[in-house]
Amino acid sequence: MKLVFKLLIGACTLVLLYVGGSFAYYTAKTGKTPLASARAAEFAAAGTLSESDVAARLAKDPGDPVAHCALAEKAQKRRDFTKAIEERKLALQCEPANPQILLDNALACVFAKRPDEAKLYCEKVIATKDPSCSDIAQKILTKLAKQNKI
């Protein structure tokens, strides 16, 4: 019985080491934890949510940032950039340091011809030090500066 118990403990330890090592490797390779990556994927898929899915999410939680991002994406597709910016501002109330939402709002501000506001969002994106979003934000700032808009 003691041998079986020791084998069971050993097997569980190996599984925990494998899972922990996998998380550590993934985090070191991507710079994001698996949970952060899953959350980013949820926001990336926000634009594909149906109207009923968005309504259900907002009924459950009126401040749901994913639902507000979905509404922002739909508004942006209609070229209603003011509505898109406002919806993302609601999402940012729950996740003020989310680099993707900040970057999307910076782009919407560029399209809405609000360069000063776009600059502020770009600076916030760069402050998050997210490698994928910060590079894009820096390019937006450079382009706005070349156009003498900021």
What is the topological layout?
Blueprint: H1 2-30, H2 34-44, H3 51-60, H4 65-77, H5 81-94, H6 99-111, H7 115-128, H8 131-146
Helix pairs in contact: 3-4, 4-5, 5-6, 6-7, 6-8, 7-8
Please give a quick description of this structure.
This protein has 150 residues and is an all-alpha fold. 80% of the residues lie in helices and 0% in strands. The protein has two domains: 30 residues; 116 residues, Serine Threonine Protein Phosphatase 5, Tetratricopeptide repeat.
Percentage of residues in DSSP E strands: under 5%
Largest sheet: none
CATH class term of the largest domain:
Mainly Alpha
Number of domains: 2
CATH-assigned fold name of the largest domain: Serine Threonine Protein Phosphatase 5, Tetratricopeptide repeat
- In oligomeric terms, what are we looking at? single chain
Q: Which radius of gyration do the C-alpha atoms yield?
A: 21 Å
CATH architecture label of the largest domain: Alpha Horseshoe
**Spans where pLDDT lies below 50 across 5 or more residues:** 21-28
Q: Give the terminus-to-terminus CA distance.
A: 74 Å
